[in-house]
Design goal:
heterodimer; A: alpha+beta; nine-stranded mixed sheet; 6 helices; about 30% strand; B: about 70 residues; two-stranded antiparallel sheet; 6 strands; about 20% helix
């Protein structure tokens, strides 16, 4: 059946609206950045991106974001683009695999530089990073973060090392950690106060009273952690979404997961 | 893991050099301090016909990582 015919009242409306899937201006701008960089998005990816932006705005999350990497388009050119703005366009090292399900670092040499410096773009007591992992592994790997060292001004997510996931948020002090039996999930490290921060695995919250002590100037890497310019502890976990931004309230964090999971479900790559 | 082994001079000629608009080479040392670079099939397709095609002719060796201990948990 073809395009809808107003005279006979037959056909598919879908074909008429297909060319105007991207309604939101920010979704349109993202698609333009992808296209102008040499990448392409499928119709389904455009639809998912548009809904993601609409959802983030409806939940009041959009303005809290500094960088959103939806990892769509199955190419470096597309996946390097920041959905939030034309700032913080990433670059990938060699050793990444790009697919419709996300981007996979090789666990040896691969990382993505976001060019986002926490001390410039985030606040000591208000920041978050998130990573949507589609791989179940149990090795000493860090998925996203930066720091002066492992123990100074560290901000990172370390998903499932020997059965435990670890988080630090702008601190020299100890980890927030929890037992983790499967590393396929959305993880967020979130600070919105000087004397506490929280970690999220999907919709479950874990809390720490670890105080903030300092914020690093080193750019945040994805697929590894940037300790003073050295990409360290590279990951093997496929990334289907990553974000960097301000600290979120509990309600915002829960809604963030809802929006991201809906996005992944639209793309049939949810875990 | 198998990668291309590099001399120090070869490593210095490509480290952090872009081979596509959004991609650049990264080299790492193994447990014996030998430099390696790792290329996916997509990376290889991108450098064929470029000034970096010589990398594909290098010897491929087994990479043995340095001890990757994070910290005392």
């Amino acid at each position: 059946m073809g395009r809808f015919d107003f005279r006979t009242r037959t056909g598919l409306v879908y074909n008429i609206i297909q060319s105007s899937i991207l309604i939101d201006a920010d979704a349109l701008a993202f698609n333009s950045r992808v296209t102008s960089s040499g990448g392409t998005l499928s119709t389904l990816e455009q639809t998912a991106i548009n809904q993601l932006v609409v959802d983030l705005k409806a939940y009041g999350l959009w303005n809290s974001m500094k960088a959103i990497y939806p990892m769509v388009g199955a190419s470096a050119a597309a996946c390097a683009q920041n959905l939030k703005s034309s700032s913080f366009t990433g670059t990938f090292t060699s050793g990444w695999t790009f697919a419709s399900t996300g981007v996979t670092p090789n666990g040896t040499s691969a990382y993505m530089n976001t060019f986002l410096s926490p001390s410039v773009s985030l606040s000591l007591n208000s920041s978050h990073i998130s990573y949507y992992s589609r791989t179940n592994s149990n090795n000493p790997e860090l998925e996203i973060g930066a720091g002066n060292s492992t123990s100074i001004n560290a901000l990172f997510i370390e998903v499932r090392t020997t059965g435990t996931s670890y988080f630090k948020s702008n601190t020299d002090a100890t980890f927030l950690s929890f037992i983790d039996t499967d590393s396929r999930a959305w993880y967020m490290c979130n600070r919105n106060a000087s004397n506490s921060f929280n970690a999220w695995k999907n919709s479950t919250k874990y809390t720490s009273a670890t105080s903030s002590t300092g914020i690093t100037s080193n750019n945040i890497y994805i697929g590894a952690v940037n300790f003073s310019g050295v990409a360290s502890f590279p990951s093997t976990k496929q990334c289907a979404f990553a974000s960097i931004g301000d600290g979120l309230t509990d309600i915002q964090a829960a809604n963030f997961y809802t929006a991201v999971q809906a996005f992944q479900t639209t793309l049939s790559r949810q875990v | 893991m198998i990668g291309y082994s590099l001399t120090i001079e070869q490593k210095e000629s490509i480290q952090e050099i872009a081979y596509a608009e959004y991609q650049f080479f990264n080299c790492v040392q193994d447990i014996n301090d030998i430099w390696f670079t790792f290329l996916t099939d997509e990376d290889k397709r991108l450098i064929i016909g470029t000034e970096f095609e010589w990398i594909l002719k290098l010897e491929e060796k087994e990479y043995k990582p340095k001890i990757n201990k994070l910290w005392d948990y």
